[in-house]
Amino acid sequence: MFEIFVKVYEYFIFFYATSLIISYIVLAIFSFIAITKYKSYNTDIDDEELLNSNLAPGISVIAPAYNEEKTIIINVKSLLTLNYPLFEVIIINDGSKDKTLELLIEEFDLIEAPFAYVEKIKTQPYKRTFKSQNPKYEILTIIDKENGGTKADAFNAGLNASVFPYYLNTDVDCILARNTLTKMIKPILNSKVTVIAVGATLRMSNNCEIEEGVITRVRPPKALIPRFQELEYIRSYLLGKMGWEFINSVPNVSGGLGMFDKEIAIKAGGYGADSHAEDMDMLTRMAAYMMNNRMEYKIGYIPLSCCWTEGPPNIQILGRQRTRWASGLFQMFSEHRKILFNPSYKRLGLITFPYIFIFEFLAPIIEAFGLLFSVFLLLNNHVNWSFAPLIFIYSYTFAIMISSIVIIWDQMTFKYYNTTREVLTLFLTAFIEPILYHPLIVFFSLKGYFSFITSRELAWGTMTRQGFDNEEKTKKNIDKNDGNNSGNDTKEKKISIFERLKKKKVTGNFKPFKT
Amino acid sequence: MSIVEWFLSFVYMIKTFPLVIQLTIVLTLAFIIATFALVIAIYTIRRKHNRLQKRLKTSVPDIKSLFEDVLFTDKKFSEKEIYDRFKNIVGDVNRESLNIGIDVLVEFKNEDKQSERYPFLISALNIVEHLERKFDSRSNSEKMDAFQEAFVLELNKFDSKVLIYAYSKNKRIRSEARNSYLALSSNDPYRFFDEFDGSLTKWDEIELMQYLKLQNTRGNLAGLGKWINYSKNDSLVVFLIKMVGFFNQKGIDEILLEKLDDNNANVRAEAILTLGKLNIKETEQTLIDRYYTEPEICQVAIVRTIRKFNTGKSLGFLEEIFKDSNNTDSKKIIAEAILNYSYEGRIAFQNLKNSLKGFDLTILKHIETPLIKFK
Lengths: 515, 375
Known about the structure:
heterodimer; A: Spore Coat Polysaccharide Biosynthesis Protein SpsA, Chain A; ten-stranded mixed β-sheet; 16 helices; globular; B: 20 helices; 0% strand
């Protein structure tokens, strides 16, 4: 019996790994075509055309802030320096317990303004709106609301307050490239089909030079954890999302940087207010809305890095971030399970969702089981030592090759690093990433799933900011959620998955997408 | 044991392994070789990039200085002199160095630095021939560059080149060629207004508008009414009506009035807005009469147009529709129109403020607050 189980398990792992490898190779080919195509048809002269055009559509830049006193000023300044003819910046103060709002009021000379706030999407209560008395900051709007426990609720408030037909969602800890709006609106403008969302690459800001909210010199992070994340981000965006873009099946546009069609976002019901993977949830809602209403749509992606965010500086903070993401992924599949393998949802139901489910959602579970099973085989002396190292080297060399492909794609697109040495540093990181970083990600993913199932409490803003001032970095960190008086009362008390399913069955409280 | 013997013994050894393991070994070797190849490629790309950066760092300031001397000073240069001095700076006048030169010229143009000697400099460096080569290139990226650079440098000598691509199988190139034809053709720039494939994208509109602006500067802007009149392409009609308003083209009142009865609401809305831009005040009552039978997009256009007319006759109408409307966005637009509707409008706005309560009052305060730029 045991022998049969081992045989079946071996075959399962073989086919699983092989299909994963093939999918990566296919995505690498798709992303190469998509990047080449993007490079062929988009030039910097386009930016100038758009900047000088009277027809450039307005864009609302929406960034929620919760306890962001460390970086709020520099980041809002960064958002205000964006180069685009018609845009507004909306910061949602989501009931911050620290001095976020006070700092904003002081720095930008804000006063409370009478604002006709219409709650097109239900959120936690809106309190007031602030506008700057300084004409230099006339495009800045601060919305103060009660804490909603999730970033999604804050985004919804931003959507309610925005005036333009497109919006860029970002985080206040993000530093955006000045040409972000011109680059990201282009796929929307250049399509005959409705483009519901556009994404771009994010990178780590940890060792970059920033002056007055503008990135002046890009460097790979010196610390290992953010450097691993830089490589992971480039791989995920340039290889993954650009590949998916080629077949119009982008599964997710990052919450750190994404441009959306506001009308569709509102019609799709806005962000799921209790969602912890609000970005993927939103895109899924929008795509489902379009399909339910039999409307053609596209999701665009550009291979340029437009956003720099502070990466987790240590394992503890990385753990919090990834646990939240994993829990959010679980929540997303739980809420949108009717899409999975559903032919009515075409590519989304038959390609994107199954792929993410099998190769991203299940991967940590399969890997963890594999590890435990290997330990069991080791203890029972069932390991074939002649071939085991070969299999290990096989997966290890594949991982390095994929990272090398991604680095070359990145170099092909735009050379962000000044020196060859910096590129090689990233390449060398690829050698240790599978051994040091990957196991951590697997562990935190499982922890996130466990948190979701056991209804552990989660809160947004679990990432401790160190700030961009190097001197500040040496000072003691203030952990927003571990602090004395912050976080606990803002955490959302979650209902366990079993309770929720039971509740849904009893009440039949299911919200259809179709409007 | 020699390497060959070792390799052969390795191959024989592999052959004794199960197929899956054989595959694993072969693929592992392939991955290692690919990784090495990629590292070499990364190194090569970086080396090329570093060399170019070094070259740009040294030559761009000198090229800028030379071009500024030619374009913006009174110094006299012959074409040969310019060519030789350019050659001295870049070493060799080739594709790469000419591209650097063009980038400098494009930068000047974008900074709106005017000079009558651009054609002279372009001729001295044989930039037209260089752009022709770019048009002929197999690379789509080169072709796209050529279209845009020719436009920015205001070169309209590429009729034949652009025409070839106006019928290209590649949609992007075809669309770019047809749009650019408006700026790059000296014979029949408006030719493709009759041949657009399907609806225009917003990007098409942005491109066409800037080419029309160029024609306007050249004094060659044609009356757009005839295409509005007979084109069956609604998106083109909407765009051209918008352009008529933008360029303030007179004499198409009849066509615009006809378009008020078009089946497409977007066409009607744009025609209404353009009536406002052209200040055709006689249509004010017609627009008011239509208000309640039109969809929201046209209602908003009517309010904006009445605000533009600013005749003082429609204040009562604006107040009435403000009270009737249930849509907050429309209410904001109407309130703004009342506030900006002459002196009487401001008084009416204050009266409304005194009489209204709750959210309606908030809307009025919102509109009145100068701190809120985008209402």
